[in-house]
Write a structure and sequence with these properties.
Rossmann fold, Nucleotidyltransferase, domain 5, globular, 20% strand, nine-stranded mixed sheet, alpha/beta
Length: 490
């Protein structure tokens, strides 16, 4: 057995000016501003923010955003993991604008909805927020809306147990058995696909995101744990960094992008999620999450896929479905960038079938470089003689045919490993002609492309990380064509 271990270079991130490159998003933003400063007048110099929620939380939200105008201290001892937030305008060179007329107090509607039970309560609370979002989107020219959720909503409405028909119950039990046999299992932290158990539950967050999409309005969902200091909450500066990065992105800005010295590349993650059910059988629906090396992100809904015992319960696309999804990917990429990619990389957690390869390849035949790559958590572990696990970016190859990449692990800049469990590396399987070091470096870089936080250590590449969330929101949208903009899903 031949084992080789090497350490990949930490991906560098690009920001607003040419003051160099950074590995920590917070340091880059504080020193050079957001990447979208390079867009000139298109940079979001002002963010018009609306608020929807009960009156007490509306006041807490106003105070929080005013607080973020200035420096927010971590309250932690000196530690490179924790950096003070230097104020929204200084960090993003943009200001958050609030106005009383951009607020919707839903206290009365919320109180009435919370008096109900089960489905009526869930729908009542959902309607209260979605009505507020719709009113603001029609009457005000806003960039984003923060939905303020009180603890009572989180405690009693976060999920709703569905009523299943007899046929649906049988199909659910069959899906559970498949998962227990390991045919559809994934690491709990990474988990790119829906589990059978989720067929029983309707998720409030996804339902509200879908309603906001109907109103064409990106939203930020926040609770008192964001607005108020509490022993159970993160430190104030970390909350300020994370919420501000997400707010800036959802309002139309691009906080950073991964440094790229190669050709214009489109990275695409292909995944599947359970449809809620049909009268006759469970179905899968395909999803494509795509990201350009220039920082653009979009999500596309593919065709529904029957759940077949002949296929070993593994979802896959037919040749025609793969071709159709490929055309949608190219059309959306051209729409957003004004050109075609010079390189296209496809990620999937399971092997590509011959029909999938042929369907994608026939449409992408004019693109100079097309690569197929399987990326998924593994059972492989690596232990070193140290108090800490392997470094993030460690690449291990066994017999030149099995490749494992640690996208989480010891972080030298922080002098610690911030995780709670033994790091789980990703197994990467590529085309034979692919440069495996470059492929692994791409995956490591894509693990840094999460604009929902400035403190990202989860390790899954952006092409596959939000598959469950994106698929769940698309399922809530129903038969309508969902918006491709990734700002509606994060």
């Amino acid at each position: 057995m031949r084992i080789s271990v090497m350490e990949l270079r930490t991906p560098e991130l690009e920001f607003g000016d040419n003051k160099g490159y950074f590995t920590d998003p917070r340091e880059g933003l504080a020193s050079a501003g957001p990447f979208s400063l390079r867009f000139g007048r298109a940079h979001k110099a002002q963010i018009r923010l609306g608020l929807v929620g009960p009156r007490d939380l509306l006041e807490d939200a106003r105070q929080w955003y005013r607080r973020c105008e200035n420096t927010v201290l971590t309250g932690k001892p000196t530690n490179p993991m924790y950096l003070d937030f230097q104020g929204f305008e200084r960090v993003f060179q943009s200001v958050v604008v609030l106005d009383k007329t951009w607020e919707i107090d839903i206290q009365n509607a919320l109180d009435k909805a919370l008096e109900r039970s089960g489905r009526d309560r869930f729908e009542g609370v959902l309607n209260a927020y979605s009505t507020g979002i719709s009113r603001l989107s029609r009457t005000q020219s806003l960039d984003v809306i923060t939905c303020c959720l009180p603890d009572a909503v989180v405690a009693s409405c976060w999920s709703l147990t569905r009523r299943l028909t007899r046929i649906e119950r049988k199909q659910l039990e069959r899906a559970r058995k498949d998962e227990e046999s390991g045919q559809l299992s994934f690491d709990a932290i990474w988990a790119p696909d829906d589990t059978a158990e989720e067929l029983l539950q309707r998720d409030f967050r996804r339902a509200l995101k879908a309603r906001a999409m109907d109103a064409n309005m990106p939203i930020q969902i926040a609770t008192s744990s964001l607005f108020c200091d509490d022993e159970a909450s993160q430190d104030p500066a970390t909350r300020a960094w994370n919420s501000s990065v997400a707010l800036f992105y959802k309002a139309g800005g691009i906080p950073w992008r991964v440094r790229s010295d190669g050709p214009a590349t489109c990275f695409v993650g292909i995944s599947f999620h359970y449809l809620r059910t049909t009268k006759s059988d469970l179905m899968y629906s395909s999803v494509a999450q795509a990201f350009s090396s220039e920082g653009e992100g979009f999500a596309l809904k593919g065709d529904s896929v029957p759940r077949s015992r002949e296929s070993g319960h593994t979802a896959y696309l037919t040749l025609e479905q793969a071709s159709k999804l490929a055309r949608k990917i190219l059309d959306e990429y051209r729409e957003r960038t004004g050109k075609e990619p010079s390189r296209l990389v496809l990620h999937k957690t399971t092997q590509f079938t011959a029909d999938e390869r042929r369907g994608f390849s026939e449409v992408f035949n004019q693109i100079p470089v097309v690569e197929f790559m399987n990326v998924a958590p593994s059972d492989f572990r690596l232990v070193q003689r140290s108090a800490y696990p392997p470094k993030r970016g460690t690449l291990c190859r066994i017999n030149d045919d099995a490749t494992y990449l640690f996208t989480t692990g010891y972080i030298p800049e922080w002098q610690t490993y911030p995780g709670m469990h033994v790091p789980v590396p990703l197994k990467i399987v590529t085309d034979r002609e692919t440069d495996i070091v470059r492929a692994a470096s791409d995956v490591l870089a894509l693990a840094r492309m999460n604009w929902n936080t400035a403190f990202d250590t989860t390790g899954a590449p952006i092409t596959l990380r939000f598959a469950r969330q994106v698929g769940g929101i698309m399922a809530e949208v129903g038969q309508k064509e969902p918006s491709p903009s990734y700002r509606f899903y994060m």
